[in-house]
Design goal:
homodimer, alpha/beta, Arc Repressor Mutant, subunit A, Nucleotidyltransferase, domain 5, 5-stranded mixed sheet, 13 helices, 17 strands, about 25% strand, globular
Chain lengths: ~400, ~400
């Protein structure tokens, strides 16, 4: 069999067979097609022979990656061809999120449908990293059982964390959780595996929550929007910067720390050691404090905030206006620097966007040099408050689709 | 003759001959080679035949783009081959800069050597755009005459401006000059042409000064540094963001407006209409005012600033420390956002870097989340205070090298 050298996601170069390339090529075309393509469509589209397409498609169907649908009846003569689409059974991706005051889990099937979703409110600052990851493992086990019940097999997991992630999934720093050099894979290794083991696919990828949420927004969001700033507003505030359809990770992988943009340079002290960071004025905790909801039970207060704003509570509205102004100052700086035309309010900001958008827009109009002729859209995230878990699951699904041979090899 | 479709810089697609491709290919290899390659080296390197290489090289030599040098004697037997390098005669690039308190002109030959350089200190806020561009045309005429005297032909010009440039070279906004919708090419069209007309090469490109200076730094700076923030500190403060060896221009071409990052959100009013912009604390005028040199004669004061700092004048040192701190607050925000490991202090900041770097470094260490394990280098620009004019000339030279057939066609 002919072979070719391709680059793996990890950057290594290895020999791979023509069959592997064709599996990935055809599955990618099926995933990207606006309507279920037929085998003939795929042959015409790729230049492969009908026989090759049929053999490869049979493998994809046999492995539970693709399913066939009956065509809508057509007026034209001849037997209409059956359409191919991503299977809603077979492999699925597990997305997990640790944030400061909640945990989330999500299962996406290959077609991108959410098949399981849990959010658990708990103040994780009171727990050790090991205890927190124990709760994560419990959520994952429940998600796996639910997936099994639906005939899905979890083929990998991604975990979103509100911090800076280094090599090997070690969380270098997550100031709001109080985590420093936490080796997540090592701590989880003592527990039952989160998912099925699929050689050739990573069992667990740990990534920054704003990055994963931004990727989720890129794939679930409006078509054609390929440049945007995604802001994840939790206790901490992170950002994912998407440029030309690609997540910009920075020179060393630690971009997007918008929460530590100084908005009042000698202002309130921050957990990072600096002063006047955006988080201290527009983070969930700051908003809750300014709204007069201060106290220890952060998760409960976060849930109350939206209701009070909806009821028009003056202190809550004032707190949101103040937070929105601080956020707008930071956003104006970013837009002046990067010239982005879309800013997405995500995470905890998504349900609050109604109140945050007007002051953000006001600061942008006032401070962005090009605002008069180059408008900036400020809008809530499509995926809502658990975008990071959904984005994490989506990243697993995209890896399966990019490497179908790994899944098929596991099947025998 | 065989032909192929290539994309022009403007994005259009046109038919081009194989000869054009080979001219550009070989000239590019000669430009990039660490040592002057021989014709045999080029044949081995490109896979073209010796005969083709020789014919193309003869054309390049005949057109004044390439010159041959005698080899250094070698111990090996046989006639040593002659080396090829970019010509120091023939076509050259004209770089021009309009800033707030000075004009600059620069001529670079193909080999990248500066062959002419003028800086004229004048407060351009007191002149109309037409008057300013009249002075630019005078500087250009002097540069052209000097180039002629040296046997060089100016084959195109680039003009750096401290503002936002739109389609067709129209300056949409340059707040510190008071320019708004200034059609630079139209205003210069009434004057004698700045350079020789070369069909296929643009006569004049207008671009942001920080962008051109950052490109100049990229090509003149330390090898291997492909990700950095270049800050041009004049009356206004602009930035060029270089990511992975490419200038990041933003979604609509207006990135880099670091001067309008709010460092004290409700602080001093700015010419942009906002408040508390970095420029108001770290721009040249702000430094001069804080040093007690206030007054109308901005260009003279800018020149005195460096001398006073050198003499240890306490008010000047305090002003530079204050400006450096404000600059550091903004830089810390940018590094938190983009995770860049190198910040270049350019333009008027280059000669002041000795005093500005320590407070910038202090703010970065204090405020950047990853500073403890991912150090950030703050250093002066390689090209110094007239980097934008040099960078502008370099951009013209790179266009000539990319399209040698345009120059050769002009020669007949």
């Amino acid at each position: 069999m002919s072979s070719s050298v391709v680059s793996t996601p990890a950057g290594a170069v290895r020999q791979t067979s023509l069959r592997e390339i064709n599996l990935a090529l055809l599955l990618g075309r099926i995933a990207a097609a606006p309507r279920p393509p037929s085998r003939a469509d795929l042959a015409a589209d790729t230049g492969l022979t009908r026989a090759t397409v049929s053999a490869v498609v049979d493998d994809l169907i046999g492995g539970g990656l693709v399913t066939e649908v009956d065509p809508t009846p057509r007026a034209r003569a001849g037997r209409p061809a059956r359409g191919l689409l991503l299977a809603g059974h077979g492999p699925a991706g597990l997305g997990l999120e640790v944030n400061v005051d909640y945990l989330a889990a999500c299962v996406l099937d290959l077609a991108g449908a959410v098949r399981h979703r849990t959010v658990r409110r708990v103040d994780l600052r009171l727990l050790s990293p090991g205890e927190t990851l124990g709760l994560v493992a419990e959520l994952a086990a429940r998600a796996r059982a639910d997936a099994d019940d639906q005939g899905l097999t979890l083929a990998g997991a991604a975990l979103a964390v509100p911090g800076l992630v280094g090599a090997g999934g070690v969380v270098r720093l997550a100031p709001n959780l109080g985590w420093r050099e936490v080796d997540v894979p090592a701590l989880l290794a003592t527990r039952p595996p989160l998912t099925e083991a699929v050689p050739g696919l990573p069992a667990l990828v740990v990534d920054n929550e704003a990055n994963l949420a931004a990727l989720g927004e890129l794939h679930a969001g409006r078509a054609g929007v390929t440049d945007f700033l995604y802001i994840s507003g939790e206790v901490g505030i992170g950002a994912g910067i998407v440029l030309d359809g690609t997540l910009y990770r920075g020179g060393r992988g630690w971009s997007g720390e918008i929460g530590h943009l100084p908005v009042h340079p000698e202002g309130r002290p921050c957990r990072c050691g600096g002063r006047g960071c955006l988080e201290q004025y527009a983070g969930q905790e700051a908003i809750i404090g300014a709204a007069g909801l201060g106290g220890d039970d952060l998760p409960a207060h976060a849930a109350r905030l939206h209701r009070l704003a909806d009821e028009g509570d003056p202190a809550t509205l004032a707190a949101l206006a103040e937070a929105g102004t601080a956020l707008g100052v930071a956003v104006a700086g970013v837009v002046n620097l990067l010239d982005l035309d879309t800013v997405v309010l995500g995470g905890g900001y998504a349900p609050l966007a109604r109140w945050l958008s007007p002051p953000v827009t006001a600061e942008v109009s006032r401070r962005v040099l090009t605002a008069a002729w180059a408008p900036v859209t400020i809008r809530p995230a499509v995926l809502g408050a658990d975008a990071a878990a959904v984005g994490a699951a989506g990243s697993v699904v995209r890896r399966i689709i990019a490497r179908p041979h790994a899944w098929l090899a596991r099947c025998g």
